[in-house]
Amino acid sequence: MLALTWGILLIFVVLSYWYYKKDFTGPLFLVCSSMLLCFTIVCMNYENWDMKKHGFYYLTTITFVLALVSFFFGTLLVRALMSYRNKPITDEIDPGIMERTKKNFPYRLFTVLSIILFLAYIFIKFRGLNLSSFSAFKTSLRAIYDEEKTYNFFTTQLFEILVAIAYICLHRVMITRFVHKEKNKKLVYVPIVFFLIYALITTDRNILIRFFLFGLLLFVSSYEWKKSVFVRNRKLIVKVGIIGIVFALIFWGFGRMKNYKSGFDRAIGIYAGSGIYAYNLWLEGFDNNYTNGQQSFSVVQNTLAAVGIGEESKVPHNSEYTEYKSPNGYTFATNIYSAFRPYYQDFGMAGVCIIPFLTGALFEFLYLMNKRDKFGFWWMFYTSHVYPVVYYPILEQFLKRFHFGLVYEIGWLVVFYYLVYAKDGLWRVKVSAQR
How does pLDDT run across 333-348, given as a tens digit for each residue? Predict the structure, then answer.
């Protein structure tokens, strides 16, 4: 089944590549590529995960196929509904967007804001740090890292504003470098650096992954956009491969900061590949006791409960661990089960079809808006929020992000973008900011 499944996923990748006319950023291509990459990691761990004994369940492959086909039909529906619009997808860039993105940018303001927000976070997070000795410092720092993450409204907004500024600045970097073909001012990197330091301190790797995906997709969709598709994609594959390796090393380093003892290959294997294989193990033992939405919509239920509608979900925030030891001494341990487990656990095959269908429709809509708004707001919005598609083989990030944090995240991104780039000039820094 491993070889058959890998071959099927490869076919999906090739077909989706042609479906988007050789564009690497389409949502169907992203989900298929992510599935193939993660499944390849599963295959590479054949001995370590004792797959000769545990095997690969045929029903797992069927759910993969049904989910990807349903995702595809979701994209087709949106394309059909939007085909009546008079504005076609072209390689031309809106002159208004080009003009607005060359105007003054509040470099100094964003630099000062990011520094203030970062220092405020440091003060709040580490105010209980024991500095009496180096040993006491390490002990208290470890306790701060290990404590349950609880944020009030104020600290949440500190974080979301810092993130939004970093995203706007990275957007500016790509626009200036690859679209306008100009050099970036050094100040534009300051908010990005402080955001990365924040991610380093919190050791939250998901924050880092989302930011990396955002930057990578911005780079892919803007790099050498005037050249032929063949030349562009050949170079992109090499560059993206190098970037991916560097990021994987950084990702592993973040894990080491949390005292994870895993080597590089084991860390990448467990995080990227174990979701698919753990889902396979779970599915084989599933008793068909469907939970009717409790798993998939637990975060939505908690969000509604926070405003007085209904009760909080009783589903635990983290899933139970699957653990076993292979004959070669390798320990398989994970509590992530890809996006497929909650969908199947709630509704069976219907969930595996319906939710990916809706996901495909939503992200295809955002993708088409992004293509018609080349290098404008929708370009930034799509590339910053398409990560649930890439996360499909790892864990559920689409419905699990339906909480107030997502509202704040989108809200601040919209506010800062339109304050800087609004068509009618809601915000123009005349003196201090320069291109």
Answer: 888 899 999 999 999 9
